Amino acid sequence: MKLYLDEDISPKVSEILRKKGSDAISAHETGMLEASDDEQLSFAAADGRTMVTRNRDDFITLTVQFFNDLKPHRGLIIVPHTIPGSEFSKLAALLVRFSKNYPQGLEPYTIEFLSSSFSKSHGLVR
Question: Long-range contacts made by residues 37-43, C-beta under 8 angstroms, separation at least 24?
């Protein structure tokens, strides 16, 4: 799974993910800081990446809009605020475990919520 981390997630997380063998980049590293949410999601889709964000409401709305407009979309992972943003290693580990369930990435327009408690079958909460 190729990941694109929104600017609301520290670029340290993408660095840790890459050290763990994941294909991850962040808005901080791509010159996309202060781009609109629409531009962020379009950038991720154009690069075949699943968007990872804490900005739940705006990106759920955008995902529906992208679906209705038939715009490319490679899935969305929402990181809840119950997972502290300052725990970079924990967040990276959770994303690695999540990604193992979807080596080819999420289906277009799919929205998943990352969880710190994993079920045995999926490693996530749907």
Answer: 37/62, 38/62, 40/4, 40/6, 40/7, 41/66, 41/73, 41/76, 42/71, 42/72, 43/4
Q: How far apart are the first and last CA of the chain?
A: 18
Tens of pLDDT, residue by residue, the chain (126 residues):
999 999 999 999 999 999 999 999 999 999 999 999 999 999 999 999 999 999 999 999 999 999 999 999 999 999 999 999 899 999 999 999 999 999 889 999 999 999 886 443 343 333
Q: Tell me which of 3.40.50, 1.10.8, 1.10.101, 3.30.420 is the CATH number of domain 2-113.
A: 3.40.50
